[in-house]
Amino acid sequence: MRENQLKKRLRCGESALGCFVKLTDPAVPELLALAGFDFFVLDTEHVAVDREQLTNIVRSADAAGITPIVRVRENQQVEILQNLDLGWAGVQVPNVDTSQEARDLVSYVKYTPLGVRGLSPSVRACGYGTCSVDEYIRMANDNTMVVSHCETKECVENLDEILKVEGLDVIFIGPMDLSQSYGVPGQTKNPEVAQAIESITEKTKSAGKIVGTVAGTPEAARALIEKGVQYILLSSDQGMIVNWGKNALKAIRA
To answer: Is the separation of the CB atoms in 129 and 122 below 8 Å?
Structure first.
């Protein structure tokens, strides 16, 4: 178990730039590391990824020196366990809408005495049984990141209680899902949605937790950093390919 450089960076008050990964080629983490990204989030909520692919992608990330976070499909104990046992540095979890769901999430990630994560020293995360179990538990409990989505009106209404839950590292704002929950799908600049995003940001910062969200452009990322947002996902691998290609071709054919 390695020290989580992303978590260390955030604890020091710095911002970190990541990217959603939707392609399953292990070369993607290498490319993102070469580009200078601090971390990436493999999106298994929206993309079908099998266990062998999950393992090869996290191996590639470890070799390249980029922090790998996995967005799991749901806040479910075995789902989280199986991903973390492969060696992912943290989980990003959708639809955490109540304080009880937040407590459940933390318990699924942490080993006793902080949680109920199942212990198997033979897994990749524990060096296939070659690590000291006591040291591994200590390192895992300290380094594994817990990123909890706030993307519904229900979550916004319950945020004060959610923020009291120990062990949550990042509250991640999902603007698209939030707009849908407020009845204006895709309208992330809608006044009610914008106010909800502002409220989540300020409450999370006041609670001493990290704010995370997405940025569509470098300018948007810089504006978020100025607001104190530290965990920023800049587009996706697919999005970068499409947008760069469209812009380049448009310039050539103009």
So the answer is: yes
CA of 234: how far to CAs of 32, 212, 245, in Å? Answer: 11, 11, 17
Measure the CA–CA gap between 112 and 114, rounded to whole angstroms.
5
Give me the tens of pLDDT residue by residue for the chain, a chain 254 residues long.
Answer: 789 999 999 999 999 999 999 999 999 999 999 999 999 999 999 999 999 999 999 999 999 999 999 999 999 999 999 999 999 999 999 999 999 999 999 999 999 999 999 999 999 999 999 999 999 999 999 999 999 999 999 999 999 999 999 999 999 999 999 999 999 999 999 999 999 999 999 999 999 999 999 999 999 999 999 999 999 999 999 999 999 999 999 999 98
Strands, E assignment, 5-89: 16-21, 39-43, 67-71
**Whether pTM exceeds 0.85:** yes
Question: Would you call 46 a catalytic residue per the annotation?
Answer: yes
Tokens (6 digits) for 104: 């459940």
8 A C-beta contact, residue 87 and residue 120: no
| Per annotation, catalytic residue among 46, 51, 164, 246 | 46
E strand or H helix at 171, and its extent?
A: strand 170-173
Instruction: Please answer whether residues 119 and 111 qualify as being in contact, where contact means their C-beta atoms are separated by less than 8 angstroms.
Output: yes
Cβ neighbours for 249, distance < 8 A, ≥ 6 positions apart: none
Which string of b and e fits 86-122 if b means at least 16 CB within 10 Å?
bbbbbbbbbbbbebebbbbbbbbbbbeebbebeeeee
